[in-house]
Every structure is written in C-alpha cells, then in structure tokens.
Amino acid sequence: MGLGHSSRTPQVLIMGLDSSGKTTLLTQVLTGHTMDTSPTIGFNVGTLDLDKKNSLTLWDIGGQKTLRKNWKYYMDDVKALVFVVDSTDKERLPEAAEALKRVLSEEKVKGVPLMVLANKKDLPNSMTIREISNQLNLTVLEDRLWQIQACSGQRGLGLNQAFTSVNKMIKKS
Fold first, then answer.
1. Which residues bind GTP (predicted)?
2. Contact criterion met (CB below 8 Å) for 17 and 61
3. Which tens digits make up the pLDDT trace of 122-142?
4. 31 is in an annotated binding site
5. Which domains does the chain have, with CATH numbers?
6. Residue 50 among known ligand-binding residues
7. CA-atom Rg of the chain in angstroms
8. Residue 8: per-residue pLDDT
9. Which end of the chain lies in a sparser environment, N or C, as judged by fewer CB atoms within 10 Å?
10. Does the structure show a pLDDT above 90 at 74?
11. Annotation-wise, does 40 bind a ligand?
12. Which residues of 95-127 are buried (b: 16+ CB within 10 A; e: fewer)?
C-alpha cells in the first residue's frame, strides 16, 4: 500500500466519551473479533474495505475528558464523523451531548456528515434511538447529513450497515 493510497481513502473519525465502546467497535468491524480493550491514549487506526471499490480509513481517538481537547487535531481532511454513545449510560448522555456539540462547532468539520452509533443495544435497559437523538439534539442539525443507528460493538450487530451508510453519506456530501 503506497502513501498515495491513504489520501484517496476517505478519513473517518470515530469519537465519543470514554467507555462508549469505540475501540471494541473498531476491532469488531475490522477483524470480526471481540477483544479486551483498555482505554485508548492517542488513537487506533485501520482501513475498512467495504467492497472492491470502497474503503474507509477509520480513526478511533481516545475519549477521556483530558484527551477530548486533542480531538480537533485529528479533524483535518475528515470526510465523516462517527460519534459513539453508550446507549445504556443515561447519566453521561448530557456530557456526550456537550462533547458532540463542541465537535460539530469546529470549523474544520463544517458540513461533514455525522453518524451517531447507539452502541450496546444488545444490553438490557438501553435507551431508544429516539431518546438518544433527542438528548443529543440531533433534530436541530441543519446543513449536515446525519443518521443515528443502533449497534453492538461486542456482537458486531449493525456495524457493517452503519459504515456502508457512512460511505453513502460521504459520496452525497
């Protein structure tokens, strides 16, 4: 794989609060396996081949509070944002909403499509897509393509569909 390849492959940023399941989800979508993960300091990156013609470079960046101020350094040249939410963690949803609002206010990602992944939907007491979308104020987003989708990083449910949708949104925008 030459250096030129990476610039042609759309860059997708996977962000969200710590413990929302970003690394588990990335590992699952890239390898089809689940592994024990530890908090991400910095980032993980991999290329997801959707089909013969389409692939995405996925950047999973650490979500701890101290690391969120660094998110803006990963935003150059990003073609889509994937914001992961732990759909069982009602208490931290306002914090997630605040983090997402900050991200979307960055000039570098103006108009960049957004996919919100409501992760851990396989667990009991997970919130509905509607609850999450209301809490995150997604309905007021204008000038931006966005979708929200339920998934399970552990089980791999909904991930391929989600990234196929991300690819379609990139092509539309």
1. 16-23, 63, 119-122
2. no
3. 999 999 999 999 999 998 998
4. no
5. 3-172 (3.40.50.300)
6. no
7. 15
8. 77
9. N
10. yes
11. yes
12. ebbebbeebbeeeebeebbbbbbbbbbbeeebb
Within 10 Å of residue 164's Cβ, how many Cβ atoms?
15
Structure tokens at 158: 């909904």
CA distances, 91 to each of 41, 85, 86 (Å): 24, 12, 10
d(CA 31, CA 141): 33
For the segment 1-10, what is each residue's pLDDT rounded down to a tens digit?
333 344 579 9
**At a CB cut-off of 8 Å and minimum separation 6, what does 23 contact?**
37, 40, 44, 60
Give dist(CA 43, CA 49) in Å, integer.
20
Which sequence positions are flagged as catalytic? 64
The Cα 17–Cα 163 span in angstroms is: 20
Please name the residue that has the structure tokens 């759309």: 10
Classified as helix, coil or strand, 5 is helix
pLDDT bucket at 36, cuts 50 / 70 / 90: confident
- This model's pTM is above 0.90: yes
Cβ–Cβ under 8 Å, residues 120 and 126: yes
